[in-house]
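It is worth pausing here to work through a concrete case rather than discussing structure prediction in the abstract. The textbook approach is simple: state the sequence, then state the predicted structure, then interpret. We follow exactly that order.
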Amino acid sequence: MERYPDNPFRQVIQQQAIRVGEGKTKGTLYRIETYPGLVLSGNSWVWGEVWKSPNLASLFAVLDPYEDFDPENPDLGEYKRMKISVQGEKETYFDAWTYVYIGSILTKSPIVSGYFS
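Step two, the predicted structure:
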C-alpha cells in the first residue's frame, strides 16, 4: 500500500531511499490535526512504511524541519526523532528511525486501527 502519494516530502524520500515494505510497532496512533502522531505508550500495533537510505544525514536534513524536530533541541518540537524496534513483514525485528509525537494527547483522538489514511 502506498501512502500519501501527493505529499512533496514523499517524493524526497523516494529519491533518497528504497521502500522495503511495511512494519509495525507497539504504541498508540493519534489524529493530531490532519496528520498522525505515534506515541510509544499503549499495546496496540501501529503500522507504517519502512524505507532504507544510504544517506540518512541528507534525508534527516529535509525531514527534520518538516516534522518540527531540531536535533540541537530535541525536546522542543512537536515530534522527536527516535530509533525504535519494528516488526517487519517476515516477523523479524529490527531498529528503525521514526518521529514520535511528544505533544499533549489530552484532546487527541486515537486511531484504533493503527493505520493513518
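Step three, interpretation. The chain has one domain: 8-102. The mean pLDDT is 91.
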